[in-house]
Each structure stands twice: as C-alpha cells, then as structure tokens.
Amino acid sequence: MADILLYLVPSLALAFLIWLVTSLHPLFFVFSAAGTLCHELAHFSVGLLLGAEPTGFSIIPRRTGRTWELGSVTFANLRWYNAAPAALAPFLVLLVPLAVAWWRTRGAWHFGPADLALTLLLAPQFLSFWPSPVDWRLAVRSWPWLVIIVVASIGFYFLKLG
Known about the structure:
Layout: H1 2-22, H2 33-49, E1 54-58, E2 62-64, E3 67-69, E4 72-75, H3 83-87, H4 95-105, H5 113-128, H6 133-139, H7 143-161
Antiparallel strand pairs: 1-4, 2-3
C-alpha cells in the first residue's frame, strides 16, 4: 500500500498545481479535461445502469454566473432510488488512479517515461472525484435510502442480540 501511495505523490502534486492555475484563467481548464471526462462519464454510466435515463452529456466548459461549469449530464428519470448513486458516482473516479498505481507498482518498479505520461492523466482525477454542489443537492432525493439503512441496521443489531 505504501508503494501505491508513493507512486501517486507526483500526480497529487501536479493536481495541486493544476488547481492553482485553473483559477487564473479559463484557458487552463484544458489541464482538467481528463478529470472532467471521467467525472461526467461516472454520472452517465451509473445513471444508465440504474435507469436514470441520461439525456445529455457535455464536457464543454460554460460560464454560470461567477463560476464555471466544466461539464454536465442530464437525466430524464432521476428518482429516489437512483439519485444518490448517479449524483455521487464521481467518487468512483478515485478508483482510476488507485488501479493504475496498483498495476504500475506490482513487483519491482521504477518511475519511467510511461509513468510521467500517466502522472499527467491521473492528476486531474484527484480534482474531479468530488461531487459538485449540484450533485449533492440531487443526491438528497435519495433520502429514503437513509431510512432503509437505519432500519436495517437496527434490525441486524437486534437479530445479533437474540
């Protein structure tokens, strides 16, 4: 596990630099394009799998008031049972750098030219895994899942006692 984390240090450092420069000018959004693509594909894929019926997909940045929307996915059938998984799907993006780091650090490893290219592709993933404020608002539609989880947890607790 230490090898995986060590492998990801350059990507994390580059992610920090990208985060700093993207606030300077919209042109720098190009550095976060790979992460935006993965973020929106996560929404789209999970929404498709759970019947949320994605109807729109964009990774073209557009100005929304004082901020920028880097991408979006729209759904036709967002319901209580699929809203949270579809809206919070970007958390799955963290699996990309972890999987690549695991793959590259199996056995003896060194940091070569291919790893430098991978660093450039993995860094934006660290900037894109967190759901946006809109994503969190959509996830609240799944509040019945909280009730189900609490009731199931209480039921399992009492079953263990009996």
